[in-house]
Each structure stands twice: as structure tokens, then as C-alpha cells.
Amino acid sequence: MPWILIFFLTPIAEMYLLIEVAGYIEVWPTIFLVMLTAVVGVAILRQQGIATLARGIAKMRSGQLPAQEMVEGLCLAVAGALLITPGFATDAIGFFLLTPVSRQWFAKALLARVQIRTPDDLFRASGGQSPGYSADVEPDARGSRPGATLEGEFRDREAHNNELRDNNDSVDHDTRSPDR
């Protein structure tokens, strides 16, 4: 129910603020100000998004789950949507989410309320056991655990194709008819 109120009250509050600001600084400067906040916000959004993506990739390469960066990316997406929405209240919230300190605080507060489960957690919770898996052993830089074994079959296709070619060459290809 509160979400429905937000969707109805936000446009009303935005219209009220736009009318009030236009009453003080006229209509065209108000429109210019709304457009300026959108352009500046999107420029900052791009820079912050690239920085957050780089941090997330670095965490993944070190074998860590980039949960903080994923939530920050979600905050940036919401900030972008709010910044391109005309109005001053949505711009204020969008700029709040664009600011790295406030975005990181918000993401940490959100993550504190959420339980993150990885596929390993689900596998262990189901009573399964992976060959060579030890809960005491930490993953290495690539994210794999020492002693983990993969089983399967291997077949060298190039060697197999060479063998077939050699067998075809050894077959007698005499095309003369027996009448000759």
C-alpha cells in the first residue's frame, strides 16, 4: 500500500515544487534548471557507474562476491531513473544516491538486512558433498579450492582425425576392373 501512495504523491509533490520554483525564478529558468540537473546527473552517473563496475570486476577476479558493488549498481540505476524524471525532489534523491559516501552507506545498510547465499551454500545446505571439498580451505585467487577434482573423458580430435586419415591412406584404392 505505501508504494501506491509514493507513485501517486511523487508527481503531485513534483508539480507543486515546479510551480513554486517557477513562481520565484520564472518558467524558462525553471525548465533550464530541470534540464541542467538531468544532464549533470547523467554525466556523474556515467563516471560513478564505471568506477563501481571496475571495483566489482576487481572483487570477482580476487574470488570475492561483489555484493556491495551489485547493490551500488542498483542504486545507480535508480538514481539515473530519478535524475531523468523532471522535478526537484526526484533529482535530490537521485543526487543522494549518486554521492559515493551516501550510496555506500545505503548499500551497506541494505546488505545488512539481506542474507546472501552462494551456490556452495545451497549445495552444503542440501546435504551434498563435493569431492575434495573442505569447508576449512579458502578458495585461491581464481576462486577454486585446492583438491577439487573434475572427472570426465578426454579425446584429442586432431589425433583422432590423423588416425582416420592414415587408415584411409592404407586401404588399396585400385580402380582397375578385373577384366583387364
Q: Could you list some keywords that capture this structure?
A:
elongated; 180 residues; mainly alpha
Describe this structure in words.
With 180 residues, the protein is mainly alpha-helical. It has a domain of 81 residues. The chain is built from seven helices and no strands. The termini are far apart.
What is the structure about, briefly put?
The protein has 180 residues and is an all-alpha fold. It is 68% helix and 0% strand. It contains seven helices and no strands.
Strand and helix layout:
Blueprint: H1 2-25, H2 27-61, H3 67-84, H4 88-98, H5 100-112, H6 119-125, H7 157-170
Helix pairs in contact: 1-2, 2-3, 2-4, 3-4, 3-5
What structural category characterises the helix and strand content? mainly alpha
Strand content: under 5%
Query: What integer is the average pLDDT?
Result: 81
Radius of gyration: 31 Å
Helix-strand pattern: HHHHHHH
Could you estimate the helical fraction of the residues in percent? 55-70%
Spatial gap, N to C terminus? 98 Å
DSSP strand tally: 0
Low-confidence parts: 125-134
Shape: elongated
Assembly type: single chain
Largest sheet: none
Number of helices in the DSSP assignment: 7
